[in-house]
Design goal:
The strands form 2 sheets. The protein has a two-stranded antiparallel sheet. It has a two-stranded antiparallel sheet with strand order 3-4. Helix 3 runs antiparallel to helix 4, helix 4 runs antiparallel to helix 5 and helix 5 packs parallel to helix 6. About 5% of the residues have low confidence. It folds into 3 domains: about 35 residues; about 130 residues, Up-down Bundle (Four Helix Bundle (Hemerythrin (Met), subunit A)), CATH 1.20.120; about 30 residues, no CATH class. Helices cover about 55% and strands about 5% of the residues. It is mainly alpha-helical. The protein is elongated. The protein is built from 6 helices and 4 strands; from the N terminus they run H-E-H-E-H-H-H-H-E-E.
Amino acid sequence: MRFVNKYYALLSILLFCLCSTKEQETEKLPVKKAKLSIAQTHMRPVEVDESFFKLIENWEEYKLLEEFSVKFHQTSPNEALSNALELKSLVTNLKDGIKPTIFNSPSFNARINVLFSEAERLADITFIPAIRTTEINEQVEKTLAAFSALNAKINTVLSQKKFEDAIEISPKFIGLDTTKMDRVSRKTVAVFDKKLTPKRVPKKKIKMDKKTLPDYKNTKQINGFQKVKINNKS
């Protein structure tokens, strides 16, 4: 009888422990889900200047990425993770697609590569089950910062082009050191320098009318001087 009582007592303790553990898990689960659903306001990337919109209006890969990136300005960790894979796909298209010729430079490609690395890291987080909300929010910030750096580079390149288009004098006359420019800038300046160099106009050959020339047939040399007799023909 005592053995039975001890058995029931032990069984009761085990049941109590299991029930309390389940209650704690059910209490923690809603808290974790609630944190993942709380919207977080993130940094707004630098925007491309409106005056440059026409210069990049045909760059479809960039336009799609720029429109989609707005989803991350204010988003919850859950929403960020659900959009991470599509964001990576858009950045991949930007990286591998054809971009305007003016952006074909190592420094510009480096900005795109940084953005791709951050977007890829955000996509990888979606496969980590125990990821913390703070880590998700931090990675969203890094991705937006990389996109902001890309936009700033676009503004810099197009501002430089606008300045070069306005140049009306050769860079040699204003002491501009073209050796410190990138390849695109040097090429642009070289074109302007060529345009400003005056073209050589070939001299026209003057045809002489032989009828108006003096007659040199009758000449005499007196004391070292040549005496010319000119016969004007009318």
